[in-house]
Amino acid sequence: MRRGTLAVAVAALLVLAGCSAGGAFGPNTSDRDAPRLQFENATAASGLQYEASGSGVGSGNSGVYAADVNNDSWTDVLAVGGAGPTLFENREGEFARSDALPPVEGKVKSAAFVDVERDGYPDLFLFTRDGAVHAFHNDDGTFERTDYGLGNLTYPLGATAADYDGDGDTDLFVYQSGPWRDRKPAGYFNLETTIDADNGNRNYLYENVGGEFRRVESDDIGGNHWSLAASFADLTGDGRPDIHVANDYNNDTLYVNRGDGTFEQRSLGGSTARNGMASEVADVTGDGRPDVFVSNIWFPDLQANMDQERYDRLKRLLEFVIHSSRTQGNTLLVNGGDGSFEDRADDLGVRHGGWGWAASATDFDNDGDRDLVHTTQHVVRVNRTDPVYTYPMVFQSNRASGEDGFVRVNKTRNGMEETDGRGLATLDYDHDGAQELVVAVYDAPFVVYDNAAADGNSLQFRAVDEHGATALGAVVTVTAGDTEQVVAQTANVDYLSQDSRVEHVGLGDHETATVHVRWPDGTERQFEDVSANQRLRLTKDGVVVTARTE
Q1: 248-262 tens-digit pLDDT
Q2: What dihedral do alpha carbons 367, 370, 375, 376 form, nearest 10°?
Q3: Residue 312: enclosing H or E segment and its boundaries?
Q4: What is the three-class DSSP state of 512?
Q5: Whole-angstrom Cα distance, residue 372 to residue 394?
Q6: Residues 155/180, Cβ–Cβ less than 8 Å
Q7: Do 73 and 469 meet the contact criterion of CB atoms below 8 Å apart?
């Protein structure tokens, strides 16, 4: 769903209902007394000064993308959505504008860092609103214009990468949405109907052939969707990367890799028939299998927030728009291990997050399990005195305390600010061993949040191949005491976002860990007594310490 006609209509509807365009959706019933995550606005001190224009049609184009551009172990940031794409170089914990990226003409909609040549330096794709693709080869930290063979597209919203055919190079999946200037999704006025024939644009798979991408002409990757995010990861446990796509006004799609160069296309249906915004893949249940978190739209039961006369008068319209199947909140697809998924957002406590966008799953408090966060927009609010659902949603995992599920951390305690958020990136930009956040705001300055709650130990790493490139598809298992954490390395792409490829796991009070790596080619190594609070490069020849993190 977009910040367009329907959003304005909903806001107007709430005003008529005696509510307000600018407060919260009632009490935060899932908040409980528990250890709290805490963040502090560190924008000024970080040096990342960037303001979005809010000129994008529909969702806008405010995005943030993290990558170690010059391979110095300090994660850099690309910001999109303002006067032009701007690269910020990380100079030992403080950002400064860089001239390593040439100026780009046209309105850039989104971006993706992909190490095409697998030389350890991430290359860059910039996608424009008119379908043009600007490609840049990263030459030791400086970007040079090149042509990787993608050609022009229609409405590309992003790309993700993996070696889908097992030939040792990095392939590309580009997902597309649709132009809100010209038309609406087929499900826009069919809020309760599954749409089999959508009217968006086709997604494409590209094979890497000698450093140039060739479009795979196959009906396996089909369907004209309004896709907003995708993940290229092994979701079926067979060692081959599959593709999950979050579609707007439609079902999520899963492309299952058959292993012969083709895919089986599955519509996930069920509760995924909503407005899928994010595709965040991580093991959030602790069973070693990657789950999928998809942010969505949730409106509350407004009957408790208005007088009965008004509610009765507007009941029919309220129930159609506010309580449609497409606005029933986030989904958390728990992996069954056999290619099946069960939505457990309700019983795990992450259903209600307002109007969600980009998401990330990481261990913010370093206690050994992954927490969840997603941005929100404040098109509609209900209660001005308690704006619960109009700031980044933070869900703290309970697993470290022996319980299932998550606790939503209230705004008054987590230090977040109300913003019209879109993109979101997590990274440890100052090497303090804690995950920080950069929030891309629709029409205001971006916000950098310092993590003020992570007091436990942690370990950060990248498993790399023989050329120093991130080994997409490698599986790293970190064991500390009785806690085992399984991390599958991916491109870490999400809606208008890309997290750092430096993986982060919390170790709690443990000072050492055992690290087991399985590379995509089947090679395995185990490293014993690895000291905590380090950033590591995991190679087949051994462990290289690139930084201390404490």
Answers
A1: 888 899 999 999 999
A2: -100
A3: helix 308-321
A4: strand
A5: 6
A6: no
A7: no
Q: Which amino acid belongs to residue 532? A: A
How far is 100 from 222, CA to CA, in rounded Å?
Answer: 37
| pLDDT tens-digit map of 411-460 | 767 888 888 899 999 999 999 999 999 999 998 999 999 998 888 999 99
Contacts of 315 (CB under 8 A, 6+ apart): none
Query: What residues contact 271, with CB distance under 8 A and at least 6 apart?
Result: 328, 331, 343, 345
Q: How far apart are CA 290 and CA 235, in angstroms?
A: 6
436 and 426 in contact (C-beta within 8 Å)?
Answer: yes
Which amino acid is present at 399? R
Q: Say which DSSP state 123 is in.
A: E
Task: Select from 465, 495, 427, 463 the least CA-distant residue to 170.
Answer: 465
Three-class DSSP category at 40: strand
Provide the pLDDT for residue 400.
81
Q: Which residues pair with 158 in a beta bridge?
A: 175
Q: Give the DSSP H/E element, type plus range, for residue 314.
A: helix 308-321
Residues 6+ apart with CB under 8 A from 495: 158, 228, 229, 246, 277, 278, 279, 295, 357, 358, 359, 422, 423
User: What does the alpha-carbon distance between residue 248 and residue 187 come to, in Å, rounded to a whole number?
Assistant: 9
Mean of the per-residue pLDDT values of the chain: 87
Rounded alpha-carbon distances, angstroms, from residue 353 to 294, 299, 357, 492, 507: 11, 9, 10, 21, 28
pTM of the entire predicted model: 0.92
Give the burial class of 320: count Cβ atoms within 10 A of its Cβ; 0-12 exposed, 13-18 middle, 19 or more buried.
exposed
Contact 357, 335 (CB under 8 A): no
The DSSP symbol for 410 reads P
